Each structure stands twice: as structure tokens, then as C-alpha cells.
Amino acid sequence: MSDYLIKSLVHDGQLRAYAIDATQTVSTAQQYHDTWQSSSAALGRTLIGTLLLSAASLSGDETLAVNINGGGPVGKIIAEGNANGTVRGSIQAPHVKLTLNKNNKIDVKNAVGTNGFMTVTKDLGLKEPFTGQVPLVSGELGEDFTYYLAASEQIPSAVALSVFVNNDNSIAAAGGFLLQVLPDATEEVIADLEKRLEELPLVSEMMLKGKKPEDILDVLFGAENVKILDKMDIKYECKCSKEHFAELMATLPKKDLEELIAKDQGAEAVCHFCNKKYQFDEAELTAILEHSYDK
Ligand SMILES: [Zn+2]
User: Fold this and answer.
1) What distance in Å separates the CA atoms of residue 255 and residue 278, rounded to the nearest whole number?
2) Cβ 111 vs Cβ 74: under 8 Å
3) Res 294: pLDDT
4) CB within 5 A of ion ligand 1: which residues?
5) Does the structure show a pLDDT above 60 at 27?
6) How many angstroms does the Cα of residue 209 sit away from the middle of ligand 1?
7) CATH superfamily of 242-293
8) HSE value, Cβ hemisphere, 13 Å, CA-based, for 75
């Protein structure tokens, strides 16, 4: 079963709703980075949030990057998304497993920390990228994405991000939703939504019971109120290349490149997003050095 995202309008356009099954995507990330429980949940939630935010706000070739740095033991988390439903991400400390919190859930708040910021950078094809930054208000990340949308983009929203991790660190379920209140929304619709959100079980728990993204929207709003607009495939994808790493190598100080050539007769670059390794031999490094510094 492959992952997908549903885009919908609710109550004749009073709300916009996105729901996603990202189980395979988060599993791929878990395997690439060998994440343990708390790191899996933190990275997984960031990937799901990035996919939802990308689907809700990008089109064409636009991309965005989410940076989370809360000062907690997992360190920095990065995720990059686009309008086509692919995402990649990395986490500074993959091997974090804290004891469960008082609700018997993975303690994402203390793994991520609340002493820092969430930063979203959007490349919309303009001269300057758009950057929005908010302090981490929760560390659980769903609330942080919600706060980001309200504070930085002035869109009243609700974001739920949920990852269920098995005892062997594999991913049992990962998903979420993003709801946006549109200008025509009535007080009754908003009040009803708030009540339903309070009563809603965790997304990953609903998914473990067999619920799909469209089922979750039906539970939230009532099937008769949901109009599905689009279904988009989702996957983890890294588009790194040797050329990209050669460009990065070219930004190294001259003496570092000379040392790699003289001492190591080559270099290996490892992609932080997919662990792919790229080898550069002496001749390739020499070419990079000459190209970068002999102009
Ligand atoms: Zn890569």
C-alpha cells in the first residue's frame, strides 16, 4: 500500500481539509536514518507536517524547507517538501529513546525541546525566499505547525501529526491532517469543529484500526459534508547527485581540498538525507580545485 494525501473542501467551502497516510514515507526515513522511538516520532511528525504544509501552500516547482531546533536531545530536524508530494528529511541525533510521558505516549516534547524555533523557508521562484519563524510553543510539533500557520501566515488552522512506533523501532502507522478555516466559515461550523477535534482519537490509532485518510475526514466532518478534490501519491525521495556534492566540495577552503588530495588521495561524501555515498578520486578533486581556484 502506498502513501497518499487527500485534498478536500468541507461544508461547501467553509473549511479546507487535507489528510495523509505517510506510513511508508516515515518507514523509509526510519530505515535510512536508523531512528529510535523518540527520534522516529520527531522526524516522522516533521515529515508529515512538511508534506501537509507543502500540499496546502505550494504549486508548480515551488519548494519549502522546515527547520526545527528546540534544544532537546534529538537536536536539529530538517525536512524538505514540494508540490509533488515528495519529501526528505534528517535528524541530528537518530538514537533517542526517552521514557514514555505521563499519558503513556512517546515523549516528543522533551525529545525536541521547547527552547528554540521552527523556521519555514519557501522557495516560490522569486528573487528572495520567504522565511517565517516562530518559537516552539509545544515541542509536540502538531501544535507548533498550527501556531506557525496562525502567527506567520495568518491562517487559522488545526494540524495533527501522529506516528505509532513498534517496539522494534519499525513504524506501524504515520499520518495526520491539516484543516484551514476559510473566510466564509460560520461560528457554528467552527464551534462544531472544535468539539469534534477534542473528541477525536489519535490519527495513528485510527489508522491502526484500518481507517484511511478519507475515513478520518468523514469522522471529523460527516461524510456528507466532505467534497474530495484530489488524491496525491506521497513518498520519501532524495534527489541528491554527484554533481551536487561536487558543487559543495568546490566551496571548501583551498587548503582542505589540497589536503584531501595529498593525504587521502580522494574523498567520500555522504548524503544526510538518504545515506548515499559519493566517491571522489584524486583526479576529480584536482579538477574541482582547479575549477574553483584557478580563475
Ligand atoms: Zn540523498
Assistant:
1) 21
2) yes
3) 58
4) 238, 240, 271, 273-274, 276
5) yes
6) 34
7) HSP33 redox switch-like (3.90.1280.10)
8) 8
